[in-house]
Amino acid sequence: MGRYFKQIAKSVRANGAAASGSEENADDFLGCINIPLNEIPVVGYDKWFKLEPRSSASKVQGECHLILRLFTTQVPLDTKMLALTGYHNWFKTSIHKWLQIVHERSTDRIRKAVEMDQLEQIQSQTKHSSSAVDVTTCFSQVREFWAQLAWPDSAGAFIFITRLTDVSASKLHFHKHAVCVALNSTEHVRVYLGGLPRELDWRGVEQAMEESCGLEGKEQVNKSLNGQLYNADIDLQRAAKRLITHLTDRMLPELRRCIQHISLSPDSINTDEAVAPLMKYLDDTLVILNESLVKENLTRVLQSLWEVLLRMILDTVGENRGVQVEFYSRFQYTVETLVRFFHADGEGLLLEDLKSGDYKALDEELRLNKCSSFELIEQYVLEKISQQRILKHSRFGRISLKCYYDAPEQRLTVEILHAADLIALDANGLSDPFVIVELCPHHLFPTARSQRTQVKLKTLHPVFDELFYFHVSPEQYRHRCACLTFTVMDYDWLSTNDFAGEAVAPLSDFCWPGRPSATPAGKTLQPVILHLSRQKPSEKPIMKMLEARTGDREAQEFVRKLKEIEKSMEEE
């Protein structure tokens, strides 16, 4: 007990000296009290004690009033009872304070790293900046401290893990916005971020929360942590995309010059010569990109560059409609060459990635523009046949008919029975419908004339029961696009007739060996029901291609008829 008071006196003396800055202002030793523990009575002391000197040479005087009582407790011998439990809870406040300090200092450290950013050649394969190393090192130190801390309560660690994840994710804000030259650095940090679930033992936290709070607790942990990580990853991907866009934008002027060179090249020169400037520029650019970018970013840049080229060629083709076929052949060759370049025998982009999106639209555009006008018209008819096959209901009504072919006479009989649920095109809420029947396309049936039914007044459910005959040879009906077109019109006494809808039926459905002919047996055929459609022809790319061919009489006649139908729709 005496030593205890001596230590207090010594501490007081030392503190006094430190505070004053000199020994002169230090407190003086006044004395001490020695009380043997075994002499303290059960009822304790409540008395004055005389102060004792430090040595026999010391002169001490004075008394100190003390109230002392000694308490004792019998300690259990069971070691389990002696073990400390819940001691980690004593440090919760300190951990929260530590997280706050981590948040502040990591912000300052990352900001400073970005300001002093430079290319870091740590290894020969390293292509990211020094700030990326500083960022991940900062996060690694925090993660290592957390691992050493070994917080025993996994369920209670949830809030700390959430804060640590937030610290790592939120501090990336400074890195992605300030380092415009660091596409590789962004990827470096993004890859590190993906390892946080393993480094911070998310699975252990989820299992602990499931044990303590059930499945709902596990889902809460999963949703919270993964949400933070997902948002940070999306943020970094956006930053990388902006950097890639910035990179490809700088290449646009030269790419445009190369595409224009292909576009303006005379038909007489070799196609390889027309494409050569573009391929040389891409070769030189790829060498630089390959040396400067990590593989993941190189793939992203190549994909972006491919999309830019596709859109550029697609726009160029769209601006040059109605030109010679050789123009489209050059660009088709260009696209094929570019596919081989970007695929690089399997070392570059995947073929399925190359041949998707705008590639399909461009390939179809080039293929169709290389076709003759007759081939385009046939393609237009084939699309209508395909759409008719999948049309199972329509708000424009339907038409019922029978068709049978007399092979010896090469005669096709068309029996139009009735229509139902037609749209009202007159002010009285009804229509005056009639049907135009014709063989299409016209260049396959140059001598065939269109035929029409009688007009049925003031009805949306007309009954026609009329027969029509067409001469069709086997060579004609075997053609894949040979068909019958049924156009329902509303008769108008004062102006042009209104278009109510149309349907098509391929001749292959009626003209084939074994099909009942125009005999009494053929009359027993079940009617065919065709649903009507009303599509604007101008919305189809083929229509624009044909319209651009101003010097082609067949193309212009086909376009004229379609425009008349579309005009009648607009005047309703």
Automatic annotation (TrEMBL):
Residues 395-520 form the C2 domain. Belongs to the unc-13 family. One of its GO terms (cellular component) is plasma membrane. GO terms for biological process: exocytosis; positive regulation of neurotransmitter secretion; regulation of dense core granule exocytosis. GO terms for molecular function: SNARE binding. CDD domains: C2B_Munc13-like. It is found in: Cytoplasm; Late endosome; Recycling endosome. Residues 55-179 form the MHD1 domain. This is BAI1 associated protein 3. It comes from the Eukaryota. Keywords: Cytoplasm, Endosome, Exocytosis. SMART domains: C2 (SM00239). Residues 272-380 form the MHD2 domain.
